[in-house]
Structure formats: C-alpha cells, structure tokens
Amino acid sequence: MNFIETIKVVDGVAQNLDLHKKRSSQTMLHNFGIIKELPLEELLDFNISLPLKGVYKFRVIYSKDIIDYSLEPYIPRDIKTLRMIDGGDIDYKFKYENRDAINALFEKRGDCDDILIVKEGLVTDSSYCNVVFGDGTNYFTPKDPLLKGTKRGSLLISGAIRERVIQESEIDKFRTIFIVNAMLDMTPVSITLS
C-alpha cells in the first residue's frame, strides 16, 4: 500500500511542510504501526540546490519508507465546473497512490471539469480538492471530507475557514464555492446539480 504527499514549492520554499510531515506520520502510524517522520526537508534540500523561481510540485511516494519522488514545474488544471456525484461507500482517509475508486467516480463528470462527491447526503470533496463554501460573510469546509488536505488544514488553523456539516440539500444557499488543495489556493467553481 503506497501513499503520496504533494508539496507546493514557491520560489524554492516548501509550503505547509509541517502539515505534510504530520499527515505522513499519521498515515504510517495508522497503516503500519510505525512512529516515523519522512525526511521531507532533506529531500527538498537535495532537490532545491539551485535557486528555483516560480511554482513547483514536489511529489513523494512512500510506504514504510520513501519509494520515489519528483520535482517538476506546476501546471494547474483548469477546473471551473463540478458535477455532483454520489460517492457511495468510498473511503479515502489517507492520500493513497491508488485512486481507482475516485477515478471511477470522476468518469461520471459528463461535460463538467471535475466532480463534487456526496456521501449519505453530505458534501465531502472533489476528486483532487477540498471544497470551501461562502455565504457572503463566512467560509466553511465540510466537517467530514474524504481527505483532510494540508491547505485546508492551514486555512482552518489561520481561521480563514471553519468546519461544518454541509448537506447536499443546502448547497444552493451558499453564494460561492471554491476548490483548494496543496497546490491550489481558493479557486471559484460552479456546480451542476444533476
């Protein structure tokens, strides 16, 4: 069983590294019973020996140890629309390398760019991003996402967003919806409900 951490590097500086280290440590403890921290800083120091300008994606594949890693310029996906999809009993508590279940749901997106996964009437995530809803004053993220993303965590810590249960039936009460992940700041999208 392999897992992934994807870390945003801006002008040679890793973003939210402590949250990535914490999540990968929790993943190894839960799945392998190992108390261990991945040497992400050492890998980054080795790979960022030259001054980097711009935004890069540092991707680490690991199990009990690091399996592979890469550093490449980041090219954002153009996501503007989400189609709401019933996720059934999908489980993605950890950032698994195997995304077959999510990819199967993603194939149901129709003419939309991505999906919004709903489980038992509650909003969770898109296929690659956490979601944030705005009511004009406050911003909320689902209390029980498929995956607790590091950017989501950073926004919660800063107080920019708050957790709450978001039911499928109340989506139209929000004025805005955003997607966010380790590589992507809050980006507005629209939802297709059928």
Structure explained in plain terms:
- The structure is a single chain.
- With 194 residues, this protein is an alpha+beta fold.
- The chain has 2 domains: 3-73, D-amino Acid Aminotransferase, Chain A, domain 1; 81-192, D-amino Acid Aminotransferase, Chain A, domain 2 (Alpha-Beta Barrel), CATH 3.20.10.
- It is built from 4 helices and 12 strands, in the order ββααβββαββββαβββ.
- It has helices at residues 17-32, 40-47, 100-106, 150-158, and strands at residues 3-10, 13-14, 55-62, 66-73, 81-86, 114-119, 122-126, 130-134, 139-142, 162-164, 176-181, 184-192.
- It has an 8-stranded mixed β-sheet with strand order 7-6-5-12-11-8-9-10. A 4-stranded antiparallel β-sheet has the order 2-1-3-4.
- β5, α3 (100-106) and β6 form a beta-alpha-beta unit.
- The longest helix is centred in the N-terminal third of the chain and has 16 residues, at 17-32.
- It starts with a strand and ends with a strand.
- The model has no long low-confidence stretch (mean pLDDT 94).
Ordered list of secondary-structure elements with their pairings:
Blueprint: E1 3-10, E2 13-14, H1 17-32, H2 40-47, E3 55-62, E4 66-73, E5 81-86, H3 100-106, E6 114-119, E7 122-126, E8 130-134, E9 139-142, H4 150-158, E10 162-164, E11 176-181, E12 184-192
Parallel strand pairs: 5-6, 5-12, 9-10
Antiparallel strand pairs: 1-2, 1-3, 3-4, 6-7, 8-9, 8-11, 11-12
What are the main properties of this structure?
single chain, 194 residues, alpha+beta, D-amino Acid Aminotransferase, Chain A, domain 1, D-amino Acid Aminotransferase, Chain A, domain 2, 8-stranded mixed sheet, 12 strands, globular
